[in-house]
From TrEMBL:
The lineage of its organism: Bacteria, Pseudomonadati, Pseudomonadota, Gammaproteobacteria, Alteromonadales. Belongs to the LysR transcriptional regulatory family. GO terms for molecular function: DNA-binding transcription factor activity; transcription cis-regulatory region binding. This is LysR family transcriptional regulator. Residues 11-68 form the HTH lysR-type domain. SUPFAM superfamilies: Periplasmic binding protein-like II, Winged helix' DNA-binding domain.
Length: 300
């Protein structure tokens, strides 16, 4: 629900913080001492807050202030408000210091993303509110992200000329079809000419100007999809063959790996790249360092 443009809040953030302190410290006296305010000013703030809202938030039981039922609900929501304001103020300070509001991580689709999860879980705790955009790249799209510096960090299986990268684990692609596909009945290994007579499922290159410089793309018929998750059901249905990484096919039950004469599978190295080099911002640099520490230790 959007807020009307002419709406003026009846309460202040300071009033809510005082209410929280009174509850957290068990009364006005201790809360006043803890946050260095007079007890009378705190009594006035809470009274004014209740008057503005028209509801009772606190009631005194003995010598202790306790929340009413309405107060419990309002207190929970007020804590969300103060956390958001604190984060907003921290974000402003971070931006003032050059901390990026958003960073982009481009990941080649042949890379198993489950390897990133431990790093991303830890990074979230130190990201200071910066947004992370994770973008799929395929083939020359990965190279383009490096050359154009359209991403802060790139995981790629190719390095453009003059670019260095931190080596990661190798990727692997298997040539697979459904077990009831005609190609599965051929004696192995099959020839490229035999393969070319059947429909191939390929993954769309994410570059603005794709260059078909690698991969087996000689089939007479070709269906193009956006990612492996779209390709897998087509292969499982017996519609065509496809090069897929093992982490995509590991739970598939009716697939057969083909042996292609001269190239039974595709393999290669993966690299972690900082396209902007010394211009990389501190948040992106933090994530990069965490990725280097985790991925080069566990995936090498």
């Amino acid at each position: 629900m959007s807020t009307p443009p002419n709406y003026r809040p009846k309460t202040t953030l300071e009033q809510w913080r005082i209410l929280q302190a009174v509850v957290d410290y068990g009364g006005y006296a201790r809360a006043a001492e803890a946050i260095n305010k007079s007890q009378s000013s705190m009594n006035h703030a809470v009274a004014k807050l209740q008057e503005s809202l028209g509801v009772k938030l606190l009631q005194v039981v003995g010598r202790k202030a306790e929340l009413t039922n309405i107060g419990e609900v309002m207190l929970r929501r007020s804590r969300q408000l103060t956390v958001l304001v604190t984060e907003l103020e921290q974000l402003a300070q971070n931006l003032k210091q050059g901390w990026e509001p958003e960073i982009k991580l481009a990941v080649e689709m042949v890379f198993d993303r489950t390897k990133l999860l431990p790093v991303l879980r830890e990074f979230q705790l130190h990201s200071r509110g910066s947004r992370l955009v994770i973008e799929d790249t395929v083939l020359t799209g990965s190279v383009e992200a490096i050359i154009d510096q359209s991403a802060d960090i790139v995981i790629s299986h190719q390095l453009p000329r003059g670019i260095v990268g931190e080596p990661l684990s190798n990727y692997r692609m298997q040539l697979v079809v459904a077990s009831d596909h005609p190609l599965a009945q051929f004696p192995q290994p099959i020839s490229p000419d035999q393969l070319s007579q059947y429909l191939q499922v390929v993954i769309r290159d994410t570059a603005r100007k794709p260059v078909e410089a690698e991969g087996w793309l000689k089939a007479e018929q070709r269906w193009t999809v956006n990612n492996f998750n779209e390709a897998l059901p087509l292969v499982e249905a017996g519609i065509g063959f496809c090069w897929l990484p093992p982490f995509v096919t590991r739970n598939a039950e009716n697939l057969v790996e083909l042996s292609l004469s001269g190239s039974s599978r595709r393999e290669g190295g993966m690299y972690l790249v900082l396209p902007k080099n010394e211009k990389t911002g501190p948040c992106a640099r933090l994530l990069y360092d965490m990725l280097v520490s985790e991925l080069t230790n566990t995936l090498a």
